[in-house]
């Protein structure tokens, strides 16, 4: 069986170290991270922070984001 992902519009914002985002947790002793439904996920320079359909946040690497999402006008 094959399936196609349903087309939904998401919100996303690209993260950089000098950008404050409430969901990105920064602690001196570790890499910046986000708490997700699957556990803590590290956030790196340029990652996209995606808001899922239930309001959850998670990071997506730029190359994966470019292959998966297209900007909506």
Write the layout of secondary structure elements.
Blueprint: E1 11-14, E2 33-36, E3 39-42, E4 48-51, E5 57-60, H1 62-68
Antiparallel strand pairs: 1-4, 2-3, 4-5
SS element count, helices: 1
How big is the Rg? 13 Å
- The coarse silhouette is globular
Overall number of domains:
1
Helical fraction equals: under 10%
H and E order: EEEEEH
SS strand fraction: 25-35%
Task: Produce a short descriptive summary.
The protein is mainly beta. The protein has one helix spanning 62-68, and strands at residues 11-14, 33-36, 39-42, 48-51, 57-60.
Account of the 3D structure:
This protein is mostly beta strands and 73 residues long. It has one domain. The chain is 10% helix and 27% strand. The protein has 1 helix and 5 strands. The strands form 2 sheets. It has a 3-stranded antiparallel β-sheet. A two-stranded antiparallel ribbon has the order 2-3. The longest helix is centred in the last third of the chain and has 7 residues. It is globular, with a radius of gyration of 13 Å. The relative contact order is 0.24. The model has no long low-confidence stretch (mean pLDDT 91).
Output the keywords:
single chain; mainly beta; 3-stranded antiparallel β-sheet; two-stranded antiparallel ribbon; 1 helix
